[in-house]
Amino acid sequence: MTRSGDGGAAISLSGVRKRFGEIEAVRGIDLVVPRGATYGLLGPNGAGKTTTIRMILSIFEPDAGDVRIFGEPVSQGVLDRVGYLPEERGIYRRMTVRRALQFFAELKGVPARASARRIEGWMERFGLADRLDARVQELSKGNQQKVQLIGTLLHEPELVILDEPFSGLDPINQQVFKDVVLELKREGRTILFSTHQIEQAERACDHVCIIAGGEKVLDGSVAEVKRMHGSESVALTLAEWSDGVVELVRTSLQVKELRVDGVELEAVLVAGGDAQALLEELVRAGVRLRRFERMEPSLEQIFVERVRPAGAETREVAHV
Ligand code: ATP
Fold first, then answer.
1. Which residue's alpha carbon is nearest to atom 26 within ligand 1?
2. 213 Cβ closer than 6 Å to some ligand 1 atom
3. Which residues contact residue 157 at a Cβ distance below 8 angstroms, ignoring those fewer than 6 apart?
């Protein structure tokens, strides 16, 4: 996407690079986060996610390239409209939760009365209303993470950037965090979060960028990425087990790969494969089926297929 075409972007990066000595952590990344998107920055450990986020926030100066937030070069005025949850947690552990949160709010210039109301509202929302006067260090790690997330949101930022927000949380709290992401989206805010846990991104985001080895592998809306890069598959349940039928499916021109678990089959289609043609082939052969269902590729499947093992040097870069 060109600079002239991203006037509505919450974040746009073009050609950003960052080197630490011998390590080229980010190797010329372009990305556009549309306003109102929930955007997942996905990649394995060491892919360059945190470095990219730090360049967006001007914590690191890029060696090359351009960073814009809301179409403007990054300045303190722009950063005041952003909420940031860093990867390394650790807030004033000896302070009470209330004081630590008031402190966050003061840093962002939120008037005392508004901050008191918002702090109580969020603590209630997270089921922590009775912990306001506890010291931060007395809270469990997951609850400390919730308090830090509240601190990120008290000034009601238009853009929320969360670095690995789900790590270290149990499944229930991961869901609580995902619900907050969806709530912020409903309010019209833009959310960028990084994660190496791809399944966390599946429901929480509408746009993704997969990076690996400091380079972009692909990006786009989740629907586009699935359509352009996923292999479609079909789940079949046979009315009865038959070697012959399994062979028929396995050798169909539409099928690239077949997994068999009793009468349950999962056929991954060849690129451009036609599920309808496979169904017609089976019906013509008189095969009786209890189920024939087209399956959407998961982001995890695409991630595994597209991200080469660590150390692979060449990678096809795709933009949808
Ligand atoms: P993770 O999921 O493990 O946090 P990441 O995708 O966020 O990984 P980065 O933290 O951006 O990846 O790291 C990318 C590369 O840059 C790694 O090889 C890392 O060791 C290196 N790196 C990051 N920050 C620094 C730094 N301040 N000094 C030196 N090297 C760094």
1. 20
2. no
3. 81, 82, 83, 189
242's enclosing H/E stretch is none
Q: Is residue 73 in a domain?
A: yes
Is position 316 within any domain? Answer: no
Q: How many domains does the chain have?
A: 2
Total-model pTM: 0.84
**CB distance 47 to ligand 1 below 6 Å:** yes
Residue 252 and residue 217 share a domain = no
User: Which atom of ligand 1 is nearest the CA belonging to 54?
Assistant: 11
Please report, for the domain that includes residue 284, its CATH number: 3.30.70.100
Query: Given this model, what pLDDT does residue 10 score?
Result: 97
How confident is the model at residue 2, as a pLDDT? 39
Compute the distance between CA of residue 148 and CA of residue 103 in angstroms, rounded to an integer.
12
pLDDT digit string, tens, across residues 190-241: 999 999 888 888 888 999 999 999 999 999 999 899 888 877 899 999 999 8
User: Of 199, 227, 255, which residue is a domain's last?
Assistant: 227
CATH number at residue 34: 3.40.50.300
What are 5's two structure tokens?
A: 């075409």
Kindly state whether residues 276 and 202 are assigned to the same domain. Answer: no
pLDDT digit string (tens) for 55-77? 999 999 999 999 999 999 999 99
Q: How far is the CA of 23 from the centre of ligand 1 (A)?
A: 9
The length of the chain is 320
Exposure string for 146-162, b = 16+ CB within 10 A, e = fewer: bbbbbbbbbbebbbbbb
Residues 69 and 142 in one domain: yes
- Domain containing 277 equals 231-296
Tell me, yes or no, whether 172 lies in a domain.
Answer: yes
Residues 6+ apart with CB under 8 A from 267: 233, 234, 236, 249, 252, 254, 255, 257, 258, 278
